[in-house]
Design a protein that fits this description.
This protein is an alpha/beta fold. Helices cover about 45% and strands about 15% of the residues. The protein has helices spanning about 25, 35, 60-70, 85-90, 105-115, 120-140, 145-150, 155-170, 175-190, 205-210, 215-230, 275-285, 290-295, 315-325, 330-350, 370-385; strands spanning about 75-80, 95-100, 240-245, 255-260, 350-365, 370, 385-395, 410-420. α5 packs across α9, α14 (about 315-325) packs antiparallel against α15 and α15 crosses α16. Bound molecules: S-adenosylmethionine (SAM). The site of S-adenosylmethionine (SAM) has 27 residues, from α4 and β2.
């Protein structure tokens, strides 16, 4: 669906969050919007480039926050670990890391991106996979590929993808299997008939579609060689603990020095659309569509209605009252999301010994700006945690993209550091 024009957006009046910058933060380069933009700084180093993810945290930002707030050897937790930006940086900087996410694709790639594996063995495994898959592709039937998956691929990509799926999902060693499932998933994204750089899937049209003639085995090879090199260069023996888990189920086993995380900006329907982003890739790594639908319920705001609870945030109440006038469904969806978000924050603070650092942008729903920075700060105040430091940065590449349903994201990102009372 093409992006529709941006329409006028209502701002709900809020007091500005007072920036309070410690001297040491300035020394660490955390002092102003310009530095935190990391313009021109490499972001796809180490294993970060192994697999794309939507709304990923900027790796240099994660690195600065870890370097500044978490002593070496301590544990960093990212309860919304997504594509693994924070967890990878923690490993690279000699911290221990725990991550969880409700999306199995996020967990799979974060595990792969943080597990050191030797290159010689992985190269031999790659060659054996490629050889077997080419044979399987010649005799495999693609009749059982569901239409909603088939729609996104050229017909001649289906047999190679199915053959790779059969061979990769049979690898016995778990860490090896995860590495090649991640490579296959990234390949499935590379050969998908979708415009790149857009959050929602949109099928290539006209001459764009004709010109795009991907070769699945060549794409798999490119991905595999690059992934093998990057995991072999991870610190030897490194491994993070990464689980498929709802952050509302965190237990003392996940205790950490500091949590550094970027929570979803909104529910899956009106926000980034992680389910749609991962659907095709998860299918090729062996997770059927039905199972994916069940997993979606654990996403913040996607479970049973909980919007009757009153939210302890003045900003949220004011914003919701504007949205309610505009569209009842949006009101309900937003209220559900924030009720779940608050529950998540309550669990997250329980396991953090020192600080909780939240990186989040504002968003738009029903043409109303939702100030996620204020809402998070008011929720945390209610839980008893005060804002210690506050930074902002501009996301130069993000405009207020209309995500459908008058929703969108905003280019200002809040970085909020809360300290245990
Ligand atoms: C903004 S993304 C995180 C991006 C991540 N920091 C990165 O660098 O890729 C938010 C993540 O929250 C996850 N999520 C949504 N609801 C969740 C829940 N209840 N528990 C844990 N993770 C959840 C989504 O699947 C998504 O991956």
């Amino acid at each position: 669906m093409p992006l529709s024009p941006i329409r006028e957006i209502t701002d709900v009046d809020v007091e500005p969050l007072e920036p309070c910058l410690p001297v040491e933060a300035r020394a660490a380069g955390l002092e102003n919007g310009h530095d935190l933009n990391f313009n021109g700084v490499e972001t796809q180093h180490a294993t970060h480039s192994m697999h794309p993810y939507v709304a990923a945290m900027n790796p240099p930002l994660a690195a600065s926050l870890i370097g500044h707030y978490v002593p070496k050897g301590e544990v960093v937790l990212d309860p919304f670990c997504g594509g693994g930006g924070v967890v990878v940086e923690a490993i690279l900087q000699g911290r221990r890391a725990i991550g969880c996410d409700v999306k199995p694709l996020a967990v799979l790639m974060t595990q792969a991106k943080t597990t050191h594996l030797p290159s010689g063995r992985m190269l031999r495994l790659y060659m054996s996979i490629a050889e077997q898959a080419e044979k399987v592709a010649r005799r495999t039937s693609v009749d059982d590929v569901p239409d909603m998956i088939r729609f996104w691929y050229r017909d001649d990509s289906l047999a190679p993808l199915k053959a790779l799926q059969a061979v990769v999902c049979r690898i016995e060693d778990e860490a090896h299997r995860r590495l090649f499932q991640t490579v296959l998933s990234a390949t499935a994204r590379d050969v998908m008939l979708t415009y790149r750089g857009e959050i929602r899937l949109r099928k290539l049209q006209g001459s764009d579609l004709e010109r795009f003639q991907p070769n699945v085995f060549a794409a798999f090879k490119r991905r595999a060689l690059s992934a093998i090199k990057s995991v072999s260069e991870l610190p030897t023996g490194s491994r993070a603990e990464v689980f498929t888990m709802d952050c509302r189920k965190l237990t003392p086993a996940q205790v950490c020095h500091t949590t550094i995380t970027s929570p979803p900006y909104g529910d899956d329907k009106n926000g980034v659309g992680y389910f749609q982003f991962s659907r095709n890739m998860l299918f090729w790594v062996g997770i059927p569509l039905e199972e994916q639908k069940r997993q979606r319920e654990a996403f913040l705001g996607c479970g049973a209605d909980s919007h009757t609870k009153s939210a302890p945030s003045k900003t949220l109440q004011q914003t919701l009252s504007v949205i309610r006038e505009r569209k009842a469904a949006h009101y309900r969806e937003a209220a559900n999301f924030y009720a779940d978000y608050l529950d998540g924050l309550k669990k997250i603070v329980n396991v953090a010994q020192e600080r909780v650092i939240i990186v989040i942008g504002d968003r738009v729903l029903s043409r109303t700006r939702i100030n996620n920075g204020h809402i998070t700060t008011e929720f945390m105040r209610e839980i008893g945690w005060r804002l210690e430091h506050y930074y902002t940065r501009q996301l130069t590449k993000k405009r207020i993209a209309n995500l459908g349903g008058d929703g969108g994201g905003i280019s200002l990102e809040h970085i909020m550091v809360f300290r245990r009372p």
